[in-house]
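Lab intake sheet, docking and co-folding queue.

SAMPLE TYPE: protein with bound small molecule
LIGAND NAME: zinc ion
LIGAND FORMAT: SMILES
REQUESTED OUTPUT: full 3D complex as C-alpha cells
PRIORITY: normal
SUBMITTED BY: R.K., bench team

The fields below were copied directly from the construct record.
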Amino acid sequence: MLLEFDLNLAKNYKSPSQAVRVCSEDWVSRFIFCLNCQRVVRKHKNNNPAADFYCEICKEDFELKSKRKAIGNKINDGAHKIMIEKITAQQNPNLFLLTYSENYKVTNFFVIPKHFFTVSMIEKRNALSLNAARTGWIGCNILISLLPESGKIFYIKNGLIADKDEISKQWHKTLFLKNENEQKGWIFEIMRCIEKLDKRSFTRQELLSFVPYLQKKYPNNKNIEYKISQQLQILRDNNYLKFSARGSYQLL
Ligand SMILES: [Zn+2]
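RESULT FIELD (auto-filled):
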C-alpha cells in the first residue's frame, strides 16, 4: 500500500476540492478492500446518490469523506431528513474517512461501519439562507465524538498501516450490532465507559463507578445498574467480552 496520492490525476482540475476528490477516490480504489471479504472495493458510477464505493461480493456500500489534517468532532454530510430516514431503515452506507497531509499523503484512513450509526449521532444544521442556491435546504453533521472507539476501524493510523486480518477481525467483532437496534444507544454508552477504564480486564464494580455520570446523563432512568448489567450480558453473549473465572470481564 502506497500512502501518496497520484497527483498526475489532479492536473486537469482547477478546483482544489475536485482535485482532492479525484485523487482520494483513485487512491481508495487501488488500496482499500472490503472489510467483510477483503476484496478491493469498486467505485460506483459517477453521481450515485447512495454511496461512492461498493463490494461486488458482499453488496456493502461505502461513502468517502476526505479532509486535510484532522477529522475533528463532527463531519458535514447530506440532507438531514434523508440521513435520518436511511439510518432508521438501516440503509445508510459504511463511511470511509480519510485525512491527508500538506504534501498529499494519506495520514489516517478509517471506516465507521454502518451499524454504528444512530439517529442521536446526527445533528441538524441550520437551513440555508435565502441567498443560497438551495434556500431552506437542511444538512446534517455526524457527531463522531459520540462513537465508541470500536466504531472506528483504522486501516491507517498516524501514517502506520494496520494488519489486514486485524482490520477484518474488528469488523466481524461488532457485526452483532446490526440486530441490536433498540439497545444500541446503551451498548455504545457502556462500550465508551469500558474504553475509559482503558484495560483489557475489568470488574463490574469498576464499571459501576460510571453510575453517577450515567445518572446525570439519563435522569429519568431509575435503574442504571440494571442497564449496565443488561449491556454486559449482550456484549458477553456476542463475544465482545467474556466473563472470566475470577469475576472480572475481559475484552476479546
Ligand atoms: Zn466484500
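REVIEWER NOTE: The mean pLDDT is 93.
SIGN-OFF: pending second check by T.M.
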